[in-house]
Structure formats: structure tokens, C-alpha cells
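User: Some background: our group keeps a shared notebook of sequences we're curious about, and every so often someone picks one and asks for a predicted structure to add to the entry. Today it's my turn. The entry only has the sequence so far, pasted here. Could you supply the structure so I can complete it?
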Amino acid sequence: MPAWASPSSTRGPTSLASEACAGRGKIERFFLSVRKQFLPLLPDELTLDALNALLATWIDGDYHARVHSSTGQTPLERYLSQVHLIRAAPKDLRDYFRIPVRRKVDKDRTVTLDGRLYEAPVGLMGKTVTLLYHAEDPQRVEIWHDEQSAGFLVPLDQAINSRIRRDKSLMPELEHRPSPQQAPESPPPASYHSGSLFSGGTES
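Assistant: Of course. Here's the predicted structure to add to the notebook entry:
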């Protein structure tokens, strides 16, 4: 008997890594039906393609056609009767499953992620930010600060980054701006002495 069909295999033909939280939206009752009604019908030797074909045939010809004891409908009838309630998935659905990590942007405006250096916006230097990314797509890392997106990071260009650190004219956001010219100071007030005001002259 194949290992995936063994009675000791409580998860049936599929298994998820413990950290794969995004894939845990299972319908446990369905997998119980698979283990009890589908797996016992399988021969010992099967390729993955053959297993998938048999599973599809069992779902369409048996599972979807069997009346459920609680609903009085087949799963397919139940689904089609409520199909109008299905909402379209957002176009950026994949972004909802990105990995979030917190990082502090260094003073040279770089940030490290999985051993790679990226350049962050100048205004975020020294601040703690949240990075959102897919592990398999390290070129697309979005940076958030104060619950607002600050765009996407770019891989570090050491030549440009070194010039930015030395030449402040390349980062006007940090360029020192003199304060507005102050009005000339008024002459100091006359001094006060023994109930008389003196401005350099003698008491009258």
C-alpha cells in the first residue's frame, strides 16, 4: 500500500508544511470523505497523473452526485443554488499572501532582507518600516510606514548610494535650508534705575 494511502496517514494524500498558513483553508469533512470513500478504492501502484485523474472522476461522478444527509442536496446543487453570492477575487489577490517583516532603515538608506541589500526612500532613513514580499520574488518588495505604502524597494546600487552619502545635493530632502531672514532686532530698551529711565543721558 502506498505511504499516502496508509491508515496511519491522518492527512490523506495531501500535507502542508507547518508554516504554510495561507493554505489551511480546508474543508475537513471533504478530506474525511476522501480518506474513507476514495482512498480504499485505489490500487497500490499509481502515478501522480493517474491519481489526479481518478480523483477528478470520483469527485464529479460520485461526490458531487451524492445527496447530503443534512442539506438534502448534492454538493453541486448546493453550490449552484448559492453561486450568485460569490464575489470576484481582487486583482491583487496574490499580494494578500505576502510575507510581512519589520526592518529599520539604516542611515545610508539601505535595508536588508534575506541577505540582500535594498535602497529605501530617503525620507525613511532611521525609521522602522514593514516590508511585504514573496520569497520567490525578491525583486518586488513593497515598503510601508505609518500604514501607508512608500513604493517598492530597488536593489542597492553601491556606486549611486556612495555618492548620495557624500553629496547632499543629490538628496534635497535632507539638504539644510536656512531659516527665513529674521527682522532686524529693535534697539535694546532703556534701562530702568530707581524709578527713572536712562538711555545714556543724565537724569533731568
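Suggested note for the entry: The CA atoms of residues 109 and 121 lie 7 Å apart. The chain has two domains: 3-12+24-85, 93-174.
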